[in-house]
Amino acid sequence: MPGTWFLPQDFTFTAEGPLRLGQVLPHWTKPTTVLAAIGSDTAKDIALPATRTLVEPNHAHHQSKSRSNSLSLWAKFEAIASASTNTDIAKKHSIDYSKTDHEIRSFADPLLPDKVTAIANIPTVRKHIDSGMFGKRPVYVVSGLRIATSSFTVTTEESSNVTIEAEGGMTPGKIGGRVKHDNQGSITDYYDTAPGVLFAYQLYVIRTHKTESETELFTHKSGFLTGEGHEQEKPLVLVDATKKEIDDDLEEEVEYESVQIGDDELCIYLPSKK
Asked: Which of 202, 210, 226, 234 would bridge 144 by S-S if both were Cys, CB 3.0 to 4.6 A apart?
């Protein structure tokens, strides 16, 4: 499946609501922050591509994530007694979307170069593009909507399991013992959506290099229905910036580390992958 589909913050949006085809967004995670709406207001001279509608029946989805950690300790005391403990912690999160049909509304044709340039030159869009500290910022155009034609059930489950095991012994009598503690728990919630709500949306990304702009379907590994993403190698950039400026400018949530190298200076770097 080409591109990536993203879920909205909740299932209360409709096709006629704040998230519509042709809206220009500053970031793919902010679907209700709109820079411009193609075909209206300051972008009324830019025509939307023709819209194609098709129906995909019987959509049902399940997602789950699990994480486990284990810690073992062993100690020996004066060659007489020894003890060991082992702790296992496991957590799981799952979400299910029951069966429904999806009506897909999307651009029938790609955004042509002249239209991409016109979108990039809308005053509010251009201001955002030029506001990047590390180069031109991308913008995103809503190009596809998945509408659930009927109500569906959303079920979420959180479960955890903690196991603690301790063992000890004494020599020379070889007296020993073992204690094990198990604690499990889960929470399940569910609700039914209204019919006709927005299930997911798709985006074009517009990237500007010097005076030229280019576009493609946006892909990202954290999306819901994810296509094949690819990463482009970018040149290194060295600039003076504060930590707040860097946090505000990054388009991704990047984990970085910092070291104080002066009274008012920090060296910020990406940690090595293990």
From this structure: 202
- Cβ pair 78, 136 in contact under 8 A: no
d(CA 67, CA 159): 11
Beta-carbon contacts of residue 86 (< 8 Å; ≥ 6 apart): 70, 71, 72, 73, 163, 164, 165, 166
| Residue 213 CB neighbour total at 10 angstroms | 21
**In whole angstroms, how far apart are CA 265 and each of 143, 244, 260?**
43, 13, 6
Locate 86 and state its tokens.
């082992």
What six digits make up the tokens of 92?
A: 């799981």
Helix (H) / strand (E) element for 85: namely strand 81-107
Whole-angstrom CA distances from 63 to 7, 44, 126 are 13, 40, 38
Cα–chain center distance at 169: 49
The burial class, CB within 10 Å (0-12 / 13-18 / 19+), for 116 is buried
How many Å apart are CA 267 and CA 250, to the nearest integer? 17
pLDDT in tens, 197-215: 999 999 999 998 877 888 9
